[in-house]
């Protein structure tokens, strides 16, 4: 055993695996927290794409929602009481959350209209959303920064009674999965609900049908256009939730461009998760792990040889890690992932020639 | 028919710009309390007047417009040529940064030599590395089916980190007060006109006719356009879509890298660690405005160059942040995609040939591999 540990590469690998396990055990909660915007974004993508609408505008939707949730909460905190309930929920924060959700839906409406009704190129439509969101939030944030608006604070994590936490394994699970803020908790609920609905409900069957073969779906009486609109708008709610996470749960202020590619990583999670809710959020957790690992290595590097090796790697490599993982995932190194057959194709009703 | 088609191609982008200025005026009025403390209906007039004066009001302003346009034209070509082959290159930002840092590195290395050696070496290094950075997503698309939209965006973020690593680490200039690369010295592009009209303007002016000629007068250009229109038909006709995809993405990267060289060697003369650029998004807008046609891209680039050049005076005179240009850009794009609105507002009839133009590039990014 001792011999193996001294054999350079294998020894290092074993040490690294040990360190990885240690990071997961110690920072399990952080992994879930950091994967929330990616997971919710991927679920937004799921809602769009299972019905056949490609959405690369998730990044912009999240950014717009992050801004409006923060700004509306900030304004509301100026004249509403900030008595905190459980989870640090205050009236201004709730209003901010609603604003974030509404923004997600409104931006989604633009995407739905462009890609379903106008039948514009869906990737162009998403790109436009990204550019407009970055431009408008950057412009407004700069204007607003002159008056430095107050922060409305943010949601807190649930705290469980100490005896529960001290329980051997259950305690760890509770600490990791339940001691979270309301938005993260809602992701954990939504993913299960969507997974069940996709395979066990009328809505799920119809959505899958429309995403695979809209023409066939319409011949059995499904309104393709209406279903796509509804799904894209519901997806907007999830993007709004993801955006609000940035400014009223994880942080409490807005910076221009703060989503930093999370919306695009969400797309990779969706593809990696093979267009299923559980798979997407599972993939999001991997990205959360990559994020957490980078932080852990900077803050508490492992001791010994492994610490020396990791310490020699420039910190930028760890920042870039989620992006590198995304490319590796997309390149299909981990297996093929097949999109819904009608993904990205605008649907045109067959018109009678009579 | 031909005339109507041409008119429509030119008119729709122009009308989209007009509509965007109207929407931008509304945004300006609505945000005027944040600019000046009270609602100001005249703010759009002040802002646009300052914008126009900054861009066209003086000789140096005009030169600045052209200087700002040069990278936008190259970036527009880097996106537009991709469109022709059915590729959506969102990676111009990364290709630009890689080209820029290469130019800075080679320029710094040859800083004390002859400009006749230093300039071409730095420019060629930028084009080569940009092309390699474009090759990666092209190769991944052709052989693994990884969609270029997501891979190029990821490569942008990776390029930002890579540049930060190089400038903070091995390339850092000794004695500088902040993290930056050494001066490029002899590789500085000579000024041709006005205060800062550097040689890089010519890069763009030369690239436009070459791109046009390659696309419309050569076999490889024909292959690029055929693959973009229908990869299956292209393969049936004996072309290799894979080869064309990789070639096109590499060419796009080359153009973006060249734009990066122009900015470093012509304007900043060194590269700071936090070098940031809007050129990727601008390139998309310019390519769409120019309908992926090199000549159209030239005019689209000039328009955005004027907006970028004039925005500083707009900020000084009207107090409107330069980010207003980003808002206008987004709205122009929105109207370009939603041609229906433009046609409805201005009662322009559709010329069928080009309505389909925008629709050819979106294919889902799942597992399909190129035939």
Describe this protein's structure:
The complex is a heterodimer of chains A (354) and B (371). Chain A has 354 residues and is mostly helical. Chain A has 15 helices and no strands. Chain A has helices at 2-6, 8-49, 58-76, 91-117, 122-145, 162-166, 168-178, 182-200, 202-212, 214-219, 224-250, 262-272, 277-299, 304-312, 315-330. Chain B is mainly α and 371 residues long. Chain B is 73% helix and 1% strand. Chain B is built from 15 helices and two strands. Chain B has a two-stranded antiparallel ribbon with strand order 1-2. In chain B, strand 1 and strand 2 form a beta hairpin. In chain B, helix 3 (59-84) packs across helix 11 and helix 11 (279-289) crosses helix 12 (294-318). Chain B is globular and about 55 Å long. The two termini of chain B are 35 Å apart. Chains A and B meet through helix 4, helix 5, helix 12 and helix 15 of A and helix 1, helix 6, helix 11 and helix 13 of B.
Features of this protein?
heterodimer; A: 354 residues; B: 371 residues; mainly alpha
Distance between the termini of chain B: 35 Å
Which band does the percent of strand residues of chain A land in? under 5%
Tell the overall outline of chain A. Answer: globular
What is Rg of chain A?
A: 22 Å
The neighbouring-strand order within the major sheet of chain B is 1-2
State Rg of chain B: 21 Å
Q: Give the count of helical stretches of chain B.
A: 15
Largest interface: A-B, 56 and 52 residues
Helix content of chain A: over 70%
Helix content of chain B: over 70%
Provide a count of the helices of chain A: 15
Shape of chain B: globular
Note the gap between the termini of chain A: 82 Å
Mind describing the biggest β-sheet of chain B?
Answer: 2 strands, antiparallel
Structural class of chain A: mainly alpha
């Amino acid at each position: 055993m001792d011999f193996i540990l001294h054999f350079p590469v294998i020894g290092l690998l074993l040490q690294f695996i040990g360190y990885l396990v240690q990071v997961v055990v110690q920072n399990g909660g952080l992994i879930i927290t950091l994967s929330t915007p990616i997971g919710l974004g991927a679920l937004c993508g799921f809602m769009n794409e299972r019905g056949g609408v490609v959405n690369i505008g998730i990044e912009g939707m999240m950014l717009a929602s992050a801004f409006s949730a923060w700004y509306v909460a900030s304004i509301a905190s100026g004249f509403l009481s900030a008595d905190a309930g459980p989870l640090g929920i205050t009236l201004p924060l709730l209003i901010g959350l609603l604003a974030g959700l509404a923004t997600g839906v409104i931006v989604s409406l633009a995407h739905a209209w462009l890609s379903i009704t106008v039948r514009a190129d869906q990737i162009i439509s998403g790109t436009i959303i990204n550019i407009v969101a970055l431009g408008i939030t950057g412009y407004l944030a700069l204007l607003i920064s002159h008056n430095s608006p107050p922060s409305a604070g943010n949601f807190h994590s649930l705290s469980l009674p100490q005896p529960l936490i001290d329980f051997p394994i259950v305690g760890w699970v509770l600490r990791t999965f339940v001691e979270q803020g309301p938005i993260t908790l809602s992701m954990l609920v939504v993913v299960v609900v969507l997974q069940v609905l996709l395979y066990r409900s009328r809505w799920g069957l119809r959505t899958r049908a429309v995403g695979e073969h809209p023409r066939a779906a319409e011949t059995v009486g499904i309104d393709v256009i209406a279903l796509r609109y509804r799904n894209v708008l519901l997806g907007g709610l999830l993007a709004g939730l993801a955006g609000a996470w940035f400014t009223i749960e994880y942080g409490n202020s807005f910076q221009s461009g703060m989503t930093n590619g999370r919306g695009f990583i969400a797309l990779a999670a969706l593809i990696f998760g093979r267009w299923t809710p559980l798979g997407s959020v599972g993939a999001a957790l991997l990205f959360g792990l990559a994020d957490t690992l980078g932080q852990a290595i900077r803050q508490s590097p492992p001791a010994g040889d492994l610490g020396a090796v990791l310490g020699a790697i420039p910190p930028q490599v760890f920042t870039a890690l989620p992006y590198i993982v995304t490319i590796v995932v997309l390149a299909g190194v981990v297996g093929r992932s097949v999109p819904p057959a009608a993904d990205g194709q605008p649907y045109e009703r067959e018109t009678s020639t009579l | 028919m031909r005339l109507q088609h041409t008119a429509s191609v030119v008119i729709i982008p122009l009308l989209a710009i007009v509509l965007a200025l109207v929407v931008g005026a509304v945004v300006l009025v609505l945000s005027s309390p944040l600019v000046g403390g009270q609602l100001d209906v005249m703010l759009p007039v002040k802002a646009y007047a300052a914008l126009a004066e900054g861009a066209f009001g003086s000789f140096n302003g005009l030169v600045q417009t052209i200087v700002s346009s040069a990278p936008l034209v190259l970036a527009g070509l880097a996106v537009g040529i991709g469109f022709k082959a059915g590729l959506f290159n969102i990676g111009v930002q990364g290709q630009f940064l890689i080209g820029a840092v290469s130019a800075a590195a080679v320029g710094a290395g040859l800083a004390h030599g002859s400009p006749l050696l230093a300039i071409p070496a730095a420019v060629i290094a930028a084009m080569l590395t940009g092309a390699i950075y474009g090759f990666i997503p092209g190769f991944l698309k052709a052989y693994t089916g990884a969609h270029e939209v997501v891979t190029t965006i990821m490569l942008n973020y990776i390029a930002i980190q890579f540049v930060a690593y190089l400038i903070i680490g091995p390339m850092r200039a000794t004695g500088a007060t902040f993290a930056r690369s050494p001066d490029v010295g002899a590789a500085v592009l000579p000024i041709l006109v006005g205060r800062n009209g550097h040689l890089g303007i010519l890069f763009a002016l030369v690239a436009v006719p070459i791109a046009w000629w390659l696309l419309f007068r050569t076999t490889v250009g024909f292959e690029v356009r055929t693959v973009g229109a229908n990869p299956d038909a292209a393969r049936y006709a004996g072309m290799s879509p894979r080869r064309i995809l990789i070639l096109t993405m590499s060419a796009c990267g080359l153009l973006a890298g060249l734009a990066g060289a122009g900015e470093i060697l012509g304007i900043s003369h060194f590269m700071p660690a936090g070098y940031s650029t809007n050129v990727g998004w601008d390139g998309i807008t310019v390519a769409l405005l120019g309908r992926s046609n090199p000549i159209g891209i030239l005019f689209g680039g000039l328009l955005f160059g004027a907006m970028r050049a004039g925005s500083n005076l707009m900020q000084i005179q009207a107090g409107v942040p330069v980010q207003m240009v980003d808002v206008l850009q987004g709205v122009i794009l929105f109207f370009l995609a939603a041609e229906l609105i433009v046609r409805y507002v201005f009662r322009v009839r559709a010329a069928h040939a080009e309505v389909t133009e925008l629709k050819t590039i979106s294919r889902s990014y799942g597992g399909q591999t190129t035939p």
